[in-house]
Amino acid sequence: MQDKIKALLQEIASFSSASAGEVEQFRLKFLSKKGIITDLFEDFKHVPADQKKAAGVLLNDLKNKVQEKINTLKQAHESSGDHGKSGMDLTRPAEQVELGARHPISIVRNQIIEIFSRIGFTIAEDREIEDDWHNFTALNFPEEHPARDMQDTFFIEKNPDIALRTHTSSVQIRTMEKTTPPIRMIFPGRVFRNEAISARAHCIFHQVEGLYVDKNVSFADLKQTLLYFAKEMFGEKTQIRLRPSYFPFTEPSGEMDVSCLICGGKGCNICKYTGWVEILGCGMIDPSVLENCHIDSSVYTGFAFGMGIERTTMLKYQIKDLRLFFENDIRFLEQFKGSY
Ligand code: PHE
């Protein structure tokens, strides 16, 4: 019996409760008419005479301890307000709420927008499902022209005139059609190409298009704008390099490389040991594209550029596989906590 009482004493000492309901349960368990203490007093009658004294002391101790415990717990609940009645402990620390992280593509998209808005570019968006005119024809891709093969297009079934846009250059046309120069804008958005998914290519990706049309816009303006962007995006020490290229809607056309962030130009596997990484296509808008949008090419000139957001993000955060952007693995996304 003494062992049993000792075990109960321990149970009482370690009991603590969050609610008044639990304290009441505890009281009933020990002190009610059919409770443990009543039972023990019953058993006490059968304890051998030589053990009665010790057992009696313990039993009384047990009874007092239970009462004491109940009193202190009740007091604690009453003094902490009315939650004792509702069974809630408002003093318990709340569970931490984990904040999510912004997706890296959104972070870099926002940074690009911010950089260009500092030098006077405004933002617009337009449709992802385009007609042939805005995605190709107005941009100087004549029908049957092999340049259309540069972009593996998703067409809408039964209507070859409608497709998912293959680049944000379509928004150049939409904007020039309805705006008179000066125009200084950027167009972020999703684009679609029928490509096999790999570490370097995906059928959905993001671009930001830039467009500047005014009197006397020159290639020097294009170059300075892009240099400013590269330094703001990748750091003051970044250098740019323009290589001649071809796009049907710009003449001359170029591709811009930035000096490799990772090795600082010495050569590494990110820049394939060249020291440079390509990030965008650009050029002076072909006069016939301006004319297609009813802008007088004898008065106005302009430049345009288009960059991949994935490519820019990969370079900035040293991400080696494009597929990570679309898998939404929480372990990947969590690493961008705290960035906007
Ligand atoms: N639209 C081109 C592409 O997707 C990029 C580009 C935009 C090139 C503007 C020149 C001017 O590859």
What does this 3D model show about the protein?
The protein has helices spanning 2-14, 20-31, 36-44, 49-79, 83-86, 104-118, 132-135, 169-178, 219-234, 287-292, 309-317, 324-327, 330-333; strands at 122-123, 129-131, 155-156, 159-164, 183-192, 204-214, 240-247, 250-259, 276-285, 301-308. With 340 residues, it is α+β, with helices and mostly antiparallel strands. It has two domains: 2-79; 104-336, 2-Layer Sandwich (BirA Bifunctional Protein, domain 2). The strands form two sheets. A seven-stranded mixed beta sheet has the order 1-5-6-10-9-8-7, with helices on both faces. Strands 2-4-3 form a three-stranded antiparallel beta sheet. The model has no long low-confidence stretch (mean pLDDT 90). Bound molecules: phenylalanine. Residues 167, 169, 209, 247, 250, 281-283, 304-306 line the site of phenylalanine.
Instruction: Determine Rg (CA atoms, Å).
Output: 37 Å
In the CATH scheme, the class of the largest domain would be Alpha Beta
**Within the CATH hierarchy, at the fold level, what is the topology of the largest domain?**
BirA Bifunctional Protein, domain 2
**Heterogens:** phenylalanine
CATH homologous superfamily placement of the largest domain:
Bira Bifunctional Protein, Domain 2
Largest sheet descriptor: 7 strands, mixed
What count of structural domains? Answer: 2
Secondary-structure arrangement, i.e. CATH architecture of the largest domain: 2-Layer Sandwich
- The strand count comes to 10
